[in-house]
Amino acid sequence: MSHSPARSAGLIIRQVSPSNLETPFHALGERITANGQFYQRSHFPVPTLQAESWRLTVRGRVMSPLKLSLDDLRALPETTVTTTMECAGNGRVHLSPRMPGVQWDLGAVGTAQWTGVLLRDVLQHAGVESGSLEVVLQGADCGTLTDPGRTPGDIHYARSLPLAKATEDVLLAYAMNGQPLAPDHGFPLRAVVPGWYGMAAVKWLTTVQITDRPFQGFFQTVDYAYWQQTDDLPPQLVPLSTMLVKAQIARPAPHDAVVAGSHCEVTGAAWTGEGVVTRVEVSADGSESWADADFLDPAETGVWRRWHYSWDVPPRPGPVTLLARATDSAGRTQCAGHDPGRGGYMINFPLPVPVTVTPTSSTSEAP
Amino acid sequence: MSHSPARSAGLIIRQVSPSNLETPFHALGERITANGQFYQRSHFPVPTLQAESWRLTVRGRVMSPLKLSLDDLRALPETTVTTTMECAGNGRVHLSPRMPGVQWDLGAVGTAQWTGVLLRDVLQHAGVESGSLEVVLQGADCGTLTDPGRTPGDIHYARSLPLAKATEDVLLAYAMNGQPLAPDHGFPLRAVVPGWYGMAAVKWLTTVQITDRPFQGFFQTVDYAYWQQTDDLPPQLVPLSTMLVKAQIARPAPHDAVVAGSHCEVTGAAWTGEGVVTRVEVSADGSESWADADFLDPAETGVWRRWHYSWDVPPRPGPVTLLARATDSAGRTQCAGHDPGRGGYMINFPLPVPVTVTPTSSTSEAP
Lengths: 367, 367
Fold this sequence. Notes:
With 367 residues, chain A is mainly β. Chain A has helices at 70-74, 119-126, 163-166, 218-221, and strands at residues 12-15, 20-22, 56-60, 66-68, 79-86, 109-118, 134-144, 154-162, 171-176, 179-180, 190-192, 205-211, 225-228, 236-239, 246-251, 257-259, 263-271, 277-283, 291-292, 294-295, 305-312, 318-328, 353-358. In chain A, strand 1 (12-15) and strand 2 (20-22) form a beta hairpin.
């Protein structure tokens, strides 16, 4: 509803209202995604908040409930964190059968430098009671869900974190890449949860509530949860959390033409929710064989690594499918198929990029 | 699929496959519902189990995992419990807008004498480890759920109970009203959970598993849960448990004719999940005024009380709507509207019974 045309130039509209815009991933450039190129995920209309009147309420199982202004927060130690954030439904358009939700292609992912205060510093001021379990983050964004019999009506966006994660590395950010947070990105304050899918990074944050039981809100159960298989019980609904390891090809873009017998630079980025990506491989023969790509960026926890691979394009014209897969320092890698228990989330099977090998350079070639 | 025509004569088919049949509530007679008149709720095809090869597995957080035959169970102290069981969706057809699920009228409720062993005796043999939280009951019934993106595929029916409830009064029943349990009612063993909606009374029971965390299976979250409002957080999904207090009118039946100026016996039953029903009231003027009904049955925890009220039918012909409402020993009573957070469950607003006051007895009158 309220994205500025100037700020969002070049983004791809996936949903007009609420505003859901994705980055054109094939244009991947710097390691840091510019603010105007960063994907936007909204569940409700963007709320209009005033810096002067806005307050962050900290309540629940705390010794001292707090109401903090933006100035109060700025008086706490400032921290800047660089982290890659991916929407849990990134890549959903590639699922078959079609899954409900925004039909993201590859661009619901980006990397930014977030500046703010650590949630643990705020919690320390409030004094968390012993026996507490979770921290529920609630945003000012709200609206009515309409799926009859399944949804709780008029609600605010809210998501919980285990207390251990909340006090580890979660940031409450008021700036993004050195700029004040824009309304589309959660002005005046949003959570940044390193290593977790974006649904945890609550925007337009107004309330931090400490609880002693698992939060079972809509965006923790019906939405943003998956069916976890266990050996001895039926599948159980588990809230999404850590990002899975994943490599994406930026270039060539799907359906690009590449010249037979040439060298083609295959480039992309790879990330993971725990540790760092240690290996990216590329296949040009339908995963029969894989070759190692080279990293353009050093290994930094929580931040994607851009990579490239110099592909010897085969001499024969025809269709070729490129694949990339990543492995991380925890030994996790990407599987060929999508676990149906994940529904429309955690899509990390290697996505095929079909290209056409052409005999001459008369058609456009990827850079 | 497998209900015997002889056993289910008179039941109303709400769904053919899986078999979902309800009692014609207007025919309410004895306090105990005959086996052939008891409602049947199935989520999957009725499994065919053999008494000789069937075993109950007790596992998880127990000192001694068990595999019990029917004879092993019969060797434990036998208990008979009379209890009213209501499907959590009973009355759903009266909701507007229509809610998904079986469109039950008034008859997904019944009262039976169940015979078997107390779950706490079985758990005592196994030895529950300290720090345990729940008991997951799993049935042999299974099948594939097809709602894409929302459901976990091929699953068994399973439901959990808090350990406190499991060790209080839950029965594992092998007989119903003095007869061996029929296949439609869970042969060879089902749970009976006094005071709880029927979804907890797992049929065709095969596994009892002790856990240390809340079970988040499909029938605990997507199905058979409701949105609980709290003051300070968005609504949370809570598994259905205790039956709400409720009175239903059996006779006159909807659209019956009653003679102007006559005495009409309004009869029905009332039940509650905690304590006993202490009061039933009837209104014939759209809840402007209420008059006390008389009980036909004594107050017994967990068992419905039939009631009757001698209604002075007004002298003027025309449409009249009858209502009944119950109050229980915990002071709970029935509210006029349906909380949308309950979705298609826990329907206990007083259901209107429209009747027609006729000038003569030429048309049929309720007995």
